[in-house]
Structure formats: C-alpha cells, structure tokens
Write a structure and sequence with these properties.
Blueprint: E1 3-8, H1 14-23, E2 26-31, H2 35-42, H3 53-62, E3 66-69, E4 77-80, E5 86-87, E6 91-92, H4 95-104, E7 113-116, H5 125-133, E8 145-148, H6 158-164, E9 167-171, H7 174-184, E10 192-196, H8 197-228, H9 232-239, H10 262-269, H11 275-285, H12 287-301, E11 308-312, H13 327-337, E12 341-345, H14 351-354, H15 367-371, E13 376-379, H16 384-387, H17 391-394, E14 402-405, H18 412-417, E15 421-424
Parallel strand pairs: 1-2, 1-4, 2-3, 4-7, 7-8, 9-10, 11-12, 11-13, 13-14, 14-15
Antiparallel strand pairs: 5-6, 8-9
The structure holds nicotinamide-adenine-dinucleotide (NAD).
C-alpha cells in the first residue's frame, strides 16, 4: 500500500518537500492554516515564487498524489515546516511550531514518524516539540519516532538543492534517525548524515551564523576600504584567490528568514558565550542606517533639497520575492525618518507582500513611477532585471542623476557615461594612479 505523508506548512520549504514526496511514492496531505494557500495548491499553484514549483505542484495535484487542506490527516509520516520568526527580545517565536505539533496530537498513531524541519533553538525537538506530541499518551522512542531534519536549501534553487544537498538528520533516538533517513532517501541524492537532535539543530544554526559573521566581516572591511580609499570589491576578489579564504560580499545589511534570525537562536541558549555572534548581528543590523545616512549626505553635499530616493529592490536578495527581514525595510524607514521621499521598484515582489507597511510609498509596481522626479536611485537588491535597465530609460524622468549601488551589481561605466554620479558601497573611487579622489565621498 502507498505510504502516506502529511506536511504541515506549505511555504518555501513545506510545499517543495510535499511535492518531492508526492513524486516519490507517497500520497501526501499538505496542510496550511492559510485558506488562500490551501486553495492555491489545490488549483495547482504555489503560493511562493520558486522556479519549477508551480508545475510540480500542479502535476502532483492533477495526479491525485497531493491534496491540500486546513487540518492534518492520519499518515505514516508527519513533517512540520512552519515559520520560526523572531519574537520580541530576539527570542525564537515557537508559537507556530507549538500550534502545528498540537494539531497533530489527535492523529498520532503507534509507529508514526514525526519530523520537525523548522529551524529551532537547540533542545526544541527533544523538549517542547516532543512534550506536545506526547500529550497523545504515546511515548517518543517507544511508540513513535521524532527527528529534526533542518533545511539548507537556497530560495531560487530549492527543487535542485532538495535533491542534491547533503542532509543532517538528528534523531531523538537512533531508530528515529534511521527511520527519517529512509524517508529522505526517497528523493535525496546527497549524503545523509545521522546525529542526535540537538546536534542537528545547532549544525543548522552554525551554518547560517558562520555566513552572518562572515558578511559582518565583509561589511567591516567595506568601511575600512572607505577610510583608506580603496575598492573593497576588488580587494575581496583578490583575497579570495587565496585557496583557504572565502570572504563574503558586503551590502546594505543581512535579511531573509535565516541569516538574520538563526544566530539569535544560538545567542538565546548561550548568551554569555556568544560575544562575536552578537557583535556580527549588530554590525549587519547597523548597515541600513549607514546606507541611508550616506545617500542623504551625498545628496545634501550636491545641494539637493527635499530629496526623493527611488529604492530599487525590496526582496532581501537577488531574483527572489522574499521580503522577510529585508534590509530594504530599514533603509526605507531611515530615509523616511530623515524626511526624504521614497519610491519603490521591485519587479519580483507582489504588492500584497508589502501592504500595509508601505502605505504612502508609491511606485512598487512601476519602474517609471519609481524614478519620476527622483534625485537618486538606490540599488538595495541585486536582481538581474536591474542590470537590464539602461540609464536612458530612467534618466530623463529624474530630477537629478545619482545612482548608489549597495551590491556592486550595475554596469557603472554605462551609467556614468549617461551623466550619472555613481557611488558604490565600499568603493572609495580611486584616481587612475591609485590615490583616492579628493572629492570622492565613499559610502
Ligand atoms: N525559506 C528558506 O529558505 C528556509 C531555509 C531553511 C530553513 N527554513 C526554515 O523552514 C521553516 C519554514 O520556513 P518557510 O520559508 O517555508 O516559511 P513560509 O512562511 O514560507 O511557510 C510556512 C507556512 O506554514 C503555514 N503555517 C503556519 N502555522 C501553521 C500550522 N500550525 N499548521 C499548518 N501550517 C501552518 C503558514 O501559513 C505558511 O504558509 C522555518 O523554520 C524556516 O526558518 C527556511
């Protein structure tokens, strides 16, 4: 008989996982508390923008291997992939995990496997999660299996990475880890490594913390570069020619559902032992204010009064529609608090994703609207689409021709030739002989 899986949470992680299982021999019930998402999935659409996902969801639904609904159903395997955002005080908000676990309790049977995929602070799977499931009267380890299997997929490439990445599976018991390994072996072609649940939890957090600290270092290097008059992008490229060096890229801050959040889950469980991690978070969180201050300083220096800034990019990184924890929010807030007018352009982001936080910031859906009467284009996200826009399309609509690129992703020479003053984050714009330009005011 076909095995049954029930996946709770049909977002970036849950829906692709549900589709993968559906494509590999499981009959899948997808569960979401958002009726709009349930409806969309049943119509064969993904609620999130991810290449190939809607097609895969559509075929799974059409062939009867995936059905979405608002409540769980009996199954052999339950997978929980619900959000774990930050709550006040920079602590993990586990309310979604608690609600999802509670909703499973009436359906739990002997022999079931329950997997927590959501990113959580160490101790959650074997603690809170297990305790809620045991309200069923069944005992984890004896009657059913519990494991943590964190996700490390890259939005924009999720379907490929789900299949090809290595996985770390942490079992509350050894048997649970083995049972989970068997499940993921259905579609994972990377290696599957077994550990205990707490180790798997911290491994996931360490991966993102490593990257967050690395970005903080790059951001600090960018400021040093501005002080001493060099181009940080060139310097990082050269340093990365060393076979054992991999410095990340500086930017306007760190966003997304993972890097900006996960380090706090480590700080939460060991606040005295996490000085470097906390400092890195502070550095990255401080970037939007620095970017806004420099943009406005630049415009003031040029004599622009009542500046209007066209912010390009609301998503936290290039070519995705995900605006969670995006540094763009903070950049915009700082610009507005300083009295600047702000317009927005992000061809990847739906208006519905930004209401109601951006009331009064028109132009999200239109390139021309965003630049009409603007003094400066501020590139916050490195979307490929921005690289295709020529200065001749927008320059004539603007009041002044400034462009500030916080991602070093635009063809600067073309824009300079079109009369734009172009500033690049971390580039102090050297003279041909290598000396910083006297007039250059780096970001
Ligand atoms: N997005 C990523 O790239 C990524 C990568 C690795 C890990 N993660 C982790 O995976 C988890 C899920 O992230 P996501 O990006 O898929 O989130 P998401 O917001 O895209 O999707 C979560 C879904 O869960 C639903 N939901 C909330 N409570 C529910 C409940 N009680 N029962 C059923 N559904 C419920 C929401 O309506 C939403 O559709 C998080 O812990 C996140 O940190 C995400």
């Amino acid at each position: 008989m076909m095995k049954k899986a029930c996946v709770l949470g049909l977002g970036y992680i849950g829906l692709p996982t549900a589709c993968m299982l559906a494509a590999h021999g499981y009959r899948v019930t997808g569960v979401d508390v958002d009726p709009g998402i349930v409806d969309a999935v049943n119509k064969g659409m993904a609620g999130v923008l991810e290449p190939g996902l809607s097609e895969l969801a559509a075929s799974s639904v059409r062939e009867g291997r995936l059905v979405a609904q608002g409540a769980p159903a009996p199954a052999d395997v339950f997978i929980v992939a619900v959000p774990t955002p930050l709550a006040a005080g920079k602590k993990a908000d586990l309310s979604y995990v608690k609600a999802a676990a509670s909703s499973l309790v009436p359906y739990l049977r002997k022999g079931n496997l329950v997997i927590l995929e959501s990113t959580v602070p160490p101790g959650t799977t074997d603690g809170l999660f297990r305790a809620i499931l045991e309200e069923s009267g069944l005992s984890a380890g004896r009657d059913f299996f519990v494991a943590h299997c964190p996700e490390r997929v890259l939005p924009g490439n999720i379907l490929h990475e789900l299949r090809h990445n290595d996985r770390v599976i942490g079992g509350v018991t050894r048997q649970a880890a083995s049972a989970a390994k068997e499940l993921y072996s259905a579609f994972v072609e990377g290696e599957i490594h077994l550990a205990d649940a707490r180790t798997a939890e911290i491994v996931k957090l360490m991966e993102n913390t490593y990257r967050d600290v690395n970005v903080a270092l790059a951001n600090e290097f960018a400021r040093v570069a501005e002080e001493i008059g060099i181009n940080i992008w060139e310097a990082i490229d050269l340093a990365n020619r060393h076979p054992r060096v991999n410095i990340h890229r500086p930017g306007p801050g760190v966003g997304g559902h993972c890097l900006a959040i996960d380090p706090w889950f480590i700080i939460e469980v060991a606040p005295e032992a996490t000085e470097l991690i906390a400092t890195a978070r502070r550095i990255n969180d401080g970037r939007p204010a620095i970017v806004a201050k420099h943009v406005l300083g630049e415009l003031r220096h040029a004599g622009v009064r009542r500046p209007k800034v066209a912010v390009w990019g609301l998503a936290y990184k290039g070519n995705v529609d995900d605006v969670r924890e995006s540094p763009a929010w903070e950049v915009i807030r700082h610009l507005q608090e300083a009295g600047a007018g702000v317009s927005l352009y992000d061809p990847y982001v739906h208006l519905s994703a930004v209401d109601p936080r951006l009331r009064g910031t028109p132009g999200l859906s239109g390139l021309r609207n965003s630049v009409r009467g603007a003094d400066c284009i501020l590139v916050v996200t490195d979307h490929d689409r921005f690289k295709e826009i020529g200065p001749e399309q927008v320059g004539p609509l603007m009041r002044h021709r400034f462009l500030v690129d916080t991602r070093n992703c635009i063809d600067h020479e073309t824009w300079r030739e079109a009369g734009f003053v172009v500033k690049i984050l971390g580039d102090a714009q050297r003279m041909p002989d290598g000396r910083p330009q006297a007039s250059a005011r780096a970001l």
